[in-house]
Amino acid sequence: MTLPLVNIQSTDAGDYSVSVSNEFGSVTSQPARLALHPTFPAMLQPIGGFQGAGFRFAVEVEPGRDYRIQTSTDLDRWTDLHLFFSTGTAYEFSDPPVLDRPHRFYRVVSP
Fold this sequence. Notes:
By secondary structure, the protein is mainly β. The chain is built from no helices and ten strands. 0% of the residues lie in helices and 42% in strands.
């Protein structure tokens, strides 16, 4: 049996169980907990571009969680660049210039 959930919201979190019955009786399953943990926060928003001093961006995140800012040059291998604990909904980060890399990609993940 499958329970399709579309457009899941924080109010959907909780315990779910299923009851099955027929002419001989009924049985209810043990509850399964649905917990929501956002893996990808809101899109990174550049602040001021490169301007020779590196790259600055802001990201909207859920407060009270640990996050990792990661970087990659090929979108395949990711390296932790910065770890932080969010105390608010917005977090700003500055990355100094890296002259030996023509481009860098960024992502923010929560363990």
